[in-house]
Design goal:
By secondary structure, the protein is α+β, with helices and mostly antiparallel strands. The protein has one domain: Eukaryotic RPB6 RNA polymerase subunit (Alpha-Beta Complex). It is built from 2 helices and 4 strands. A 4-stranded mixed β-sheet has the order 1-3-4-2. A hairpin with a 3-residue loop joins strand 3 and strand 4. The longest helix is centred in the N-terminal third of the chain and has 11 residues. It is globular, with a radius of gyration of 13 Å. The chain starts with 13 loop residues before the first strand and ends with a strand.
Length: 78
Amino acid sequence: MKKFVLQDHDLVPAHVLLSPEELEEMLKSYGVDSAQLPKIHVADPVVKEIGGKVGDVVKIIRKSSTSGESVFYRLVID
């Protein structure tokens, strides 16, 4: 039996782990600290699927009818 991949579902937006360089650039461009980002739990099914660990930052890319796509960032917490 094939394993179900959550990100293949139409209702699940793309989730991408940021590299340390991407994280540093993003934090600098927004002028925030990673602790100020909205949170997502390490037990979230998509975070588990992409191998996220506590302290990582996930970039979530949602489809938007008005802007094409919207980007959100979440700090992985326990």
